[in-house]
Amino acid sequence: LPHVVNASFDVENYNKIVPLEKSERSVANVNNADIQIRDGLRGKIIFVISLMISLVLAVAWAFINGNAMNYYRSISSEDASSKFQDKFTGRIDQLKSIIIEKRVSNAEVFEHKSSPQYQSLTVIVSKTASHDLNNPDEATMMLQNYALTTIYIATGGKSFMRTNVLGNQINSDYLLKDPSWKNQDGWFESPSVCEDWYGIHCDSSGRYVTAIFLPSNKLDGTLPPELNLMAFPRLETLELANNSLRGSIPISIGTLFFLKRIWLSSNNFDGNIPSSLGNLRNLDHLDLSNNLLRGTIPDSIYLDGLEKLSLSNNILTGRIPHGNNALKKLRYLYLSDNALSGEVQDICVYTYLVDLDLSHNELSGSIPTKLGTMPNLKNMNLDHNYFTGNVPSELGRLVSLEKLDVSFNELSGIVPSAVCSLISNEKLAVLTADCNAVVEQCSLCSISTNGYRMTMVVP
Fold first, then answer.
1. Would you list the DSSP string of 269-308?
2. pTM for this one?
3. d(CA 41, CA 335)
4. Contacts by 368-374 with C-beta closer than 8 Å and gap 24+?
């Protein structure tokens, strides 16, 4: 073959070529290593950059997704709040309609959200969400709850304001002022007023309030008109003595036909005695003493069943009503420390009367002889008036009389022997009269306007 034949082996050139090829391969190997290192670094850099980009994208996604969820939740919360608000408002309107329909309150009192009635309405709705307003028994209980809460707020208890709706809760306990009540144990802890509300007593069924007993409890304010028959159809006792109640006595009390006892003494009530109290045919005790009541004593309060009538220490004027033979069961009559005037000749005979106190008034005329026809009378105080004439001998018939005070009047004459005999028979323990001299014998005691006052006390 020419190719082969003509070939020759040049050892010298071979020796030159082989090292060159080796050198070139070494360089190529180095270059390949550099390329591999660069490729490795590039891969790592790309990995790190990819990782960082992934992290950034993940954070961004989480942020976007989180905002979206929060937005969704806020929309859901607002929707839930809106639904609850609508439900709450609807329940308020429903209860308000029942209150107005039952004439517990009139519509005007709900026009101002700061009124005790409106505050009470929101509190009751928020605390009795499970009650069925369509159930007559539960509706009755809620009406009593509403009326008591109104009384509580109006007389210095906690003041509630509905501010906003949070989730499924109503923020109804925003306290505007510290309650003045001395004791409010159990109030609002149970939606049922018959379950351990301090001072509230109910009948055996546990459904109807029969007594509101809160004397000396630092009540301060005015009694609202919600104290009426529609709210308390079975109320028998109202005891609010020795507090700081003021304003007029609500005429609505006259609708509480089952009331037997009213104690509103030692407060700051003013205005007139409501003639509506004459509607309370079951009343046996009425105590309005130690207030600032004015005007005349209404004839209507002379009730057949009344056993105690106390109107002392007020600013009452006018005549003492004769009663038209009413007060047939009267045992205690206290009208002292007023400005009552006129004669008392028309006073009725109270067969069961034990105590009679007409002292510290402006009564005039002679002492009625018919006072001597009350066989059970033990204490008679007629002092500090303008009575004239003699002490009637008919008083000697009062066989039960233990104390007689006719001092500080304008009486004259002598103490009748019939009256003195009560002392000798050890019946009359205290006799006080105005005398011109202190003498040992009752029958010799002369009475004169400018004389001394004689008090005889039997040991």
1. EEEEPPGGGGG-TT--EEE--SSEEEEPPPGGG--TT--E
2. 0.76
3. 113
4. 368/344, 368/392, 369/394, 370/394, 371/347, 371/395, 371/398, 372/396, 372/397, 372/398, 373/349, 373/397, 374/349, 374/350, 374/398
Both tokens of 404, joined, read 């007689």
A 10 A CB-CB count for 175 gives 10
433 and 445 Cβ atoms separated by less than 8 Å: yes
50's tokens: 């990819």
Angstrom CA distances, 150 to 185, 235, 237, 241, 277, stand at: 17, 17, 18, 19, 22
Task: Identify any residues that bridge with 341 across adjacent strands, giving them in sequence order.
Answer: 362
Q: Say yes or no to pLDDT of 167 above 50.
A: no
The pLDDT assigned to 148 comes to 95
Three-class SS state of 214: coil
- The token pair at 75 is 């929309």
Q: ∠ CA 422-423-425 to the nearest 5 degrees?
A: 65
pLDDT for 103 beyond 80: yes
Task: List the structure tokens of 270.
Answer: 């003013």
pLDDT digits (tens, 9 = 90+) for 322-355: 766 678 899 999 999 999 999 987 677 788 999 9
DSSP for 44-85, written as a single string = HHHHHHHHHHHHHHHHHHHHHHHHHHHHHHHHHHHHHHHHHH
Q: What CA–CA distances, in Å, run from 379 to 165, 299, 319, 322, 430? A: 63, 24, 22, 20, 9
Token pair 């925003």 in the structure block, residue: 174
Q: In what order do the strands lie in the sheet with 379-381?
A: 200-202, 209-213, 237-239, 261-263, 285-287, 308-310, 332-334, 355-357, 379-381, 403-405, 430-435, 452-457
